[in-house]
Amino acid sequence: MVDESNSFSSRSDGKRRNLTIVCTRVRDRKRYADIQKLMSNKKRIRQKYSNTYEPELSGIVEAISEQDIVIVERHSRIDLDSMSDTASKRHLYMRLLTASLTDAIMVDPGRQVDIIIDTPPIQSRVEMIELARSLQRDGRKVRWFEIRRSASDRYLTVHDFETGVVSDMVEGIPKGTVIFNEYIRKRFRGTIRE
Description:
The chain is α+β, with helices and mostly antiparallel strands. The chain contains 6 helices and 5 strands. It starts with a strand and ends in a 10-residue tail after the last helix.
């Protein structure tokens, strides 16, 4: 699963200064998707990390941490003033996506991987196709590579919680930092790095 936090449009949110991409290697996808059953069903409101509160939030993240998963991330500071054109945003997104996917694949390079990516925050269809081809050309064991809308995908709905927690940790936001240290750190590979 792959998702990003910060869609290049968070100029008004002074807390979010980085584009963070989170990749998770999941062994048992059905069990992982079943975490969605822990989420309350609010009419017409898609539940995600940003609109879930305690104690439900900790329960969902704890259930995620009990899965057979490995989480990796890459992030980079965004300077929206100097990054006003689409090409520079696309370049940053693809650079981080490629690095984080490579890190996630290398967690267990001998095992085949299915890649599900949340719809990117910027048009990058051609670059995505090239990335998929490049991974296969480089001998990565990618069975399939797909882009989906998180609003209609149960795996990405669950993954949004990991992305939110890791992004909060990167940004130094207390709520996410506490949850990260309590639940997610044991499933995290590497260090929070730029």
